[in-house]
């Protein structure tokens, strides 16, 4: 019998029956959202203790919201339901590997694990290529597709100093 180390087991194609069911739900959401004209073919569900606590499907084009990716929608739904800005002990099931925006949102939300079905490469083939955004991260600001220029940093800094001095703040 081969005994897999926990981490390598997570990295392998193996999955539990429960994980399979949850991913099927995320994939179903991706198809439904697309069929209903909500937006692109992406679905996401968030699970805690075996219970679905948040759902989302891509709603970019129907809500005129470029941030309305399935993962962001599901994180908002889950956080609202949990009345918390963190998703501790939660698992995210997304029908496609997250884009850089959702990756950031996921790290801020701090779930336990992320399961994805389609890969970034699959997404690129379907017309959703976000590799250029990953590439932008490594470029000097003046070489980015969208130029970034720092202005009035000394004024904005005062607010950060005030934050550091502030008592009774909610840290995150
Ligand atoms: N992974 C994703 C890529 C693009 N849009 C989404 O909603 N999700």
From TrEMBL:
Q: Could you state one GO biological process linked to this protein? A: purine nucleoside catabolic process
Write the record's keywords in alphabetical order, separated by commas. Answer: Hydrolase, Metal-binding, Zinc
- Which residues are in the CMP/dCMP-type deaminase domain? 17-141
MF-aspect GO terms: guanosine deaminase activity; zinc ion binding
Its family remark reads: Belongs to the cytidine and deoxycytidylate deaminase family.
What protein does this entry describe? Answer: Cytosine/adenosine deaminase
Source species, please? Answer: Belliella baltica (strain DSM 15883 / CIP 108006 / LMG 21964 / BA134)
